[in-house]
Amino acid sequence: MILVTGGSGQLARALEAFSGGRKLRRVGRPEFDFDRPETVTHTLQSTRPSLVINAAAWTAVDAAESNAEAAARANHDGPALIAHYCASAGIPLIHISTDYVFDGSKGAPYLETDAPNPIGVYGATKRAGEEAVLAGCPQALIVRTSWVFADSGKNFVLTMLNARRNTDRLRVVGDQRGCPTAAPALAAALLTAADRLSEGWSHGYAGLYHACGAGETTWHGLATALFEEAERHGVPRPQIDAIATADWPTPVRRPADSRLECGKLARVFGVRLPDWRDSLADVVDRVFVRQLH
């Protein structure tokens, strides 16, 4: 059985939706809560999974600055506990991480071999979690992803669609570059890797991987593409003004260029995520199908 944590999140829901014939259990709070380590231990021991995909995390980037201890519990302490269990049980762990472990100053897509340099509490705690997982579990894969969106949960795509209901003019940052990633596409890639792991462990599997939608854009580019797709469903296209990061101040500076190079995942597991534009079209369709029901 595959145990998926972060049960209420968009990735965990996508993993369940695309699980097919695989046995998969999705768990989240309050049943599984990093703030209550005993629930983590109980769930792991009672479930006895063959693989854990840890999609649970503190993801509120700005709020992490004033809640550093809580962010550390979710992004470091909890994953470390899972890694310890997986090591003792002799099972693999796929731990989901983020492009925010980088500062965005490289000027080219980041490789797994590039040195992390997080610029906020969120990124720092996620990097600490990576280190704890790799140190604690010999059968661990760290999968970094970025700009994740889906037809449910909290994400940029739904935020933009909701904002459009109140205005016909939007201001969106146009000087941050990255790789948008649809949760369904990421889930499919992770499950393909999980299938390979179920066939037997190889020491070459352990380590860091990047997994994002193919291609790149800015937040402004993503918003523009989003409303091109939404227009097919009768949503009038708003005016979208590109603004500078400085014009949208936040408590934490975001990486200016957090593109990730994903070739290693393809070389080791034969997996490449589809182009983000294609995945975006699929997710937008799902949004409007959901609204009809």
Number of helices: 9
Sum up the overall morphology in one term: globular
Q: Unreliable segments (pLDDT under 50, ≥5 consecutive)?
A: none
Q: What structural class do you assign from the helix and strand content?
A: alpha/beta
- Computed Rg: 19 Å
Question: Major beta sheet, specifics?
Answer: 6 strands, parallel
CA distance, first residue to last residue? 31 Å
Percent of residues in helices comes to 40-55%
What portion of the residues fall into strands of 2 or more residues?
A: 15-25%
Mean pLDDT: 96
Strand arrangement across the biggest beta sheet: 2-1-3-4-5-10
Give the number of DSSP strands: 12
- Helices and strands, in order, run as EHEHEHEHEEHEEEHEEHEHH
